[in-house]
Fold this protein.
Amino acid sequence: MSDALHDLTVAQLAARLKSRDVSADEVARHFLARSQAASDLGAYLALDEEATLAQARAADALLTAGNAPALAGVPIAHKDIFVTRDFATTAGSKMLEAYRSPFDATVVHRLAEAGMVTLGKLNCDEFAMGSGNENSAYGVARNPWDAVRVPGGSSGGSAAAVAGRLAPAATGTDTGGSIRQPASFCGITGIKPTYGRASRYGMVAFASSLDQAGPMARTAEDCALLLSAICGPDPDRDSTSLDVPAEDFTRGLTGDLTGLRIGLPTEFFGGGLNGDVRAAIDGALAELRQLGATVVDISLPRTRMAIPVYYVLAAAEASSNLSRFDGVKFGYRAPDYTDLEDMYKKTRAQGFGDEVQRRIMTGAYVLSHGYYDAYYLQAQKVRRLIAQDFQRAFEQCDVIAGPVAPSVAWGIGAHGDDPLADYLADIYTLPASLAGLPGLSVPAGFGEGGMPVGLQLIGNYLQEGRLLNVAHRLQQATDFHQRRPPGA
Ligand code: GLN
């Protein structure tokens, strides 16, 4: 690995900053310059040099005084779904064009408390609805490994920025796969914690019973550092945040896999999985076996149902959450209208993109009288069964492994006007989301066109440490996470 600042991991940057080898100002300027130069990637929606450098100065003051927190001066960029005081927040939507929050999301606040410096806000699918970052109102983000392909979604800007070395780390959110899938598509590491581990306060809501924040970085060690800062109860602000104390996830990175039982769900290795992805996953599993793990076949029999269940429930929750965007309280309002109802209609028709409108209509439909029992209630019941399937599986294994997505990143525009093509590609990430389980994607190799492939690891509730340890051990034995996209 070269010595350039952008090649350093979060852990390495923190150490260099602590030793005063470099200043936070220098580091921030370096990443800002790279980010500005790489505007073709479409990773950033907002950069504000002044705001970033002010944060860097504050970090330098703490570092000089010798009482700086763990990650002082290390830059991070945030998915534009987290509200921030210093930067506009759009959630990838015209509805929130130039919206300024009066407060920081808890996740943003906690990372700032850890000393991190915000580089800017990152592109994402509108209200985090999508699988390729093609639903952003502000244009596509591109995959640094191949600029004509999607970086994945909805945290596409986050993955592109980290893979393209425009930021050492980024935040993402995962409702049905949006941390794991873009991490896989861009060859980086990302973890979605157990539902409730990270506070949702200040995350623009999509599907509240599923939304979770998590870190995206190049290594599992970096993800452990960031997750330690992010997690912990936030009872006054998010009533669904778990009453589980924050922990130092780096302590669990022992690299010891002895006795680890890895479960492989038969349903994750069926006909829909592309051969190149399968080969990379098999390679990573062989490596883990060599490192001391054993592999057992398990079954998650309702995997197939995860797609309809998720797209009923997520749409239902979205239709309710997004009712707040009515032209009165937040953001966009249609310029011309005749009366109040006309204002609502025009505002929502003009402010929301196609996919968001599709979800709102689907959601309103499945929640409506006469259809509620047939769709919403049924989906809730099957969701419970999916969660039970996992508990049965965890009687036989400690972690579950499989692909993140059936293919490598597809071409921009390849799914055209077919939303189902996007939905179907979520098959392997949705089950853990519906069960509220932690899931991670770690670079496992390369597939078609030299594109990265991620291995998904799913753990039982609160087993983030175990997932990170497996990923960390794999990264000690392989160098997939160190390979760089062309030009980065
Ligand atoms: N692709 C899924 C969707 O469009 C998941 C998105 C997410 O996790 N935010 O809903």
